[in-house]
Amino acid sequence: MDIRFQEAEARFEGRTVLHALSLSLSERRIGVVGLNGSGKTTFARLINGLVKPASGRVTVNGFDTVADADKARGQTGFIFQNPQNQIILPVLREDIALGLQGRKLPKPEINALVDRVLSRLGILHLGERRAHELSGGELQLAALASVLVTEPPILIMDEPTNQLDLRNRRLVADTIEGLNEHVLVVSHDLDLIADFDRVLLFHEGRLVGDGLPAEVIARYRGIALP
Ligand SMILES: Nc1ncnc2c1ncn2[C@@H]1O[C@H](COP(=O)(O)OP(=O)(O)OP(=O)(O)O)[C@@H](O)[C@H]1O
Ligand SMILES: [Mg+2]
Questions:
Q1: What is the pTM of this model?
Q2: Structural domains of the chain sorted by starting position, each given as residue range(s) with its CATH number in brackets
Q3: Ligand 1 pocket check: which of 13, 17, 33, 163 to mutate, most ligand atoms within 8 Å of Cβ?
């Protein structure tokens, strides 16, 4: 994985929410922390091209998120902060199968892949359910399944455990641990990222911490609870 920010800046309606940022990311497990509104989601969205830099550039595995938007986006799977934005089709397993549409696989093979990802997350029983009837936590696991099934080389998760009970939180943590993919996780769940390879701390739209979890989390605590 090779994600590069080169003086990339994000602005909304003239307001700078992420100040010019330069960094390279290659670690397998990267956590992103910071107070509400500090720019974490904006940072994550710059990587998959949902937010375009107002100046500077962002590349993912060599593809520019503006000039090569489709290829850049193909490198990443994104799990949204609000999982209801993720599931489009009413029935969960149909929605998950949608992600495999481009592969022109025979139907039984698609069904098998959908079963496998649902089983992996312990939610095979939810396959026939209607997405709008699922609980917040069930929906969060469903959103994770809908992205995992496509096996993107880089997974970006925006607060993947924020609605989960203790058991499912553990399931998601273990799932992240077991993934071959590179993972970048935005989270207020400090335990989740405690053994990651690298943690980034944002504050008021600036990167103010970048290093090993213990050191960066300590700095975050200092900012959050001075
Ligand atoms: N589409 C948008 N239009 C205008 N302002 C936006 C937009 N998206 C984000 N912002 C603003 O940018 C700032 C950073 O938002 P962002 O969502 O990146 O924060 P965050 O660190 O993810 O916060 P949280 O922990 O609450 O999810 C906030 O002040 C937010 O109001
Ligand atoms: Mg956010």
A1: 0.94
A2: 1-75+154-226 (3.40.50.300), 82-151 (no CATH)
A3: 17
